[in-house]
Amino acid sequence: MTNALMFNLGVLGSVATSSLVAWRGCLVVKPALQPEKPLILYDMEACPYCRRVREALTALHLDVEIRPCPKGGKRYRDEAQAAGGKQLFPMLVDENTGDVLYESTDIVEYLFNTYGERSVPGYYRSKPYQPVLGSLASAVRGLKGMRAHPSKAPAQPLQLWSFEGSPYARLVRERLCELEIPYRLHNLGKEHWTEIGPARQRIKPGPYVPEPGGKRDAFYQQHQRVQVPYLEDPNTGESLFESARILRYLDETYAL
What we know:
The chain is an alpha+beta fold. The protein has helices at residues 3-20, 48-59, 77-84, 104-114, 130-140, 167-178, 215-223, 243-253; strands spanning 39-43, 64-68, 91-94, 99-102, 158-162, 183-187, 230-233, 238-241. The mean pLDDT is 92.
């Protein structure tokens, strides 16, 4: 099977994953001010509970330092245990308040209360059926982003512009997790309903104009487009759009 066909099948599976979780983690609910010290999330991409936290981070436009902790990983699991006392994920460390939190429901409530200054919206509240759908959503992707693969550790964390519901960005986050590559996740959620749709086929016709003064506007001013995923690697100076190119780059640069 060709690489192009495998990639397209991966995209279809990722679209199914976003559909099963009702496309949460796409639209911004309330832009929050970035804290002085970055939030740190010990994360496993394929874990449905970790996904709930990342959805809330997108809803609040909050950036976060991702420390990947896939099963079999050796790079950050001991660090997580030293910081919180156990290897249980998701685990959020907020150095601004000194809080260390486990359990996705508690973390989501903390994020909305502390940084959104509001209660959790109904769309993001825990529902009894969510674990089942979340597990099914991960199964559709073949549990990509669950287990560690041998890799070289970068000297500096990478930078990824993404939003949780993006099917294309998910493919990159899965690979970063499997390779245990730390990265700063810059959430670039859609700030208005007219931005719904792929970068070149949004609902609103005509040239794309982001909301003035927002994170998307700042990105647009720098790159003349708003498209995710976008990866910057300070270790090599590489900057890449397009998930297929990014995946190829990560494998060529860091996979063993």
